[in-house]
Amino acid sequence: VADRDAKGRGNQPSGEAHGRSKLTENQVETIKRRRASGEPLALIAADYGIRDAAVSKIVLGRTWAKKERA
User: Fold this and answer.
1) Rounded to whole angstroms, how far apart are CA atoms 43 and 16?
2) Mapping DSSP to helix (H, G, I), strand (E, B) and coil, where does residue 10 land?
3) What is the Cα–Cα distance from 38 to 16, expressed in whole angstroms?
4) How far, in Å, CA of 19 to CA of 25, rounded?
5) Helix 25-36, helix 52-60: angle, nearest 10
6) Sign of the torsion angle spanned by Cα atoms 46, 49, 54, 58
7) Over its length of 70 residues, how does the chain's per-residue pLDDT go in tens digits?
8) CA–centroid distance for 50 within its chain
9) What's the confidence (pLDDT) of residue 67?
10) What is the reported pLDDT for 53?
11) How many CB atoms are located within 10 Å of the residue 50 CB?
12) Which helix (H) or strand (E) holds 5?
């Protein structure tokens, strides 16, 4: 890890800063709130043009998890 960081290879963009991101942080928070209120995955996914599996991963924290900075 130290070698990677020393060579500048450990700073990949994440979240909406990533070039292939389809969502903003605000949209992710809205998705989490909607799912918490009991809205079906498929309906949420359709509104954002993503798969229901992506919504599930967001809600479970597997993607778009907030990582603490060191």
Assistant:
1) 22
2) coil
3) 25
4) 14
5) 90
6) negative
7) 788 878 877 777 777 777 678 899 999 999 999 999 999 999 999 999 999 999 999 999 999 887 544 4
8) 12
9) 57
10) 97
11) 17
12) helix 2-6
